[in-house]
Amino acid sequence: MRVVPWSLCAPFAAASILAAQAPQITPAGDPSIQADTIYKLAVKASDHPDEGSVFLLDDGVVRVEADGRGSRTYRQIVQVLTREAAEAWGEQSYSYVSSRERFTLNWARVVRPDGSVISPAPMHEQESSAPAAAVDPVYSDVKVHRITLAGVEPGTIVDFSYTVETLQPIMPGDFHFSWFVTNSRLTRRSRYLVDAPAGLSLRIKERNLTFPRRTTDVPGGRRVYAWATSEVSKVELEPFAADSNGIVQSITISAPLKWDDVAHWYAGLAGDRYVLTPGLDSAIALIEAGATTPDDSLRRLHRWVAQDFRYVSLSLGIGGFQPRRPADVLQSKFGDCKDKATLFIAVAARLGVRAFPVLLNAGGRMDRGLPSAGVFDHMIAAVERPKASYLYLDLTAEFVPFGALPMADQGEFGLVVHPDGRKEEVTLPEDSVGANVEHVSIVGELSADGIFRARLSDTPNGTYQYPLRRM
Prior knowledge:
Elements: H1 14-19, H2 35-39, E1 53-64, E2 70-80, H3 83-89, E3 91-97, E4 101-111, E5 117-119, E6 124-129, E7 138-140, E8 142-148, E9 157-166, E10 176-180, E11 187-197, E12 203-207, E13 214-218, E14 222-232, E15 250-254, H4 259-270, H5 281-288, H6 294-308, E16 310-311, E17 313-315, H7 326-332, E18 334-335, H8 337-350, E19 355-360, E20 378-383, E21 391-393, E22 413-417, E23 423-427, E24 438-446, E25 452-460, H9 466-469
Parallel strand pairs: 1-11, 7-17, 16-18
Antiparallel strand pairs: 1-2, 2-9, 3-8, 4-5, 4-9, 6-8, 10-15, 11-14, 12-15, 13-14, 19-20, 19-22, 20-21, 22-23, 24-25
Helix pairs in contact: 6-8
């Protein structure tokens, strides 16, 4: 990748870039970018035979406030090179959380490289709720804004910009955004601007960058962080590639929070959610019936919560983060990860066993050095044991044996939250490589008439067995 000096990034308005001013982008336009000059960056399709499209501009402008409110505006100017790419870029969709965000489509147009307009606006716009899956459904406040563009064909340019405003953060003072400089196609110009209060000490994580950050204090007590470069080669990710590679370039910003802040926030949300009502007494009596030891009772409780309550998530408003009460989960016979973990913890306490919620990101897509409530997407339970480490239980993994964790949880960072808001940072246990093995054998023969007859044998062990148990 070639780094272009700031003064030579001609498509960006010189005054804005050199002063690092964050532009005020509205449906009327972006005063800091000369669109016609960007369009002139169009390439010859014959010079890029393996490309379906090229980013002439990939642009992000983020504004954050100390209380967690703010906005993020993204713009992409895409040159379409093939029929397949025309099909893809002719239909666009954007998502946002309607209960705490506001979406604005600033513009979406189709032009020629000379700047002449083919289509000044979408032919059709439609907004709807994000659909819930038929299996393990999640009902949320996420809205999907879809548009259809006319006139998109090879040789044209799609230019669109949209803004998402955060009206109410998940947690007061919390925000967390990521930007990828590299992506799956050639990017001729890339810019990322972050406008924040000068006194707010952002946490910034730069990964594999080969160009400098520019930081400037501007009038109004603001500070602007700017990253700009050009001619960013595409990155083709390989299957099973390590996430700790030296190729992908990214920038992540987050609020100056600590994990203690996140733990106190969640403890406040869940404080009154562990109350058991008389309606649960009969269920608890059945769990205890026949159990000869406290461990037996705990195993029976684990099986009851994991297998007798189907997975349904009502992630509406604060319900995306605050668990439902045990009585409501019992009445409905369903719940999501936090509902099930809370039910288990509450009943375990009645049985004399202390357990705590553990917040994590299933699949490990988080940096433990950038605390934020928004990075978590899962919850399990940590059972306290005398003179031993915690026993971790994922109550949504109905066929994972007691004491084991599904693969997505293993080895991940977890935040154990105590009722008083204290926290523990833990790394969840991980099976050895030899414990998770799948043996697949196909033995057969091909006849002279081209028919292959065979016997397939699949013997999964460890975490590989659980999908088969659901069949």
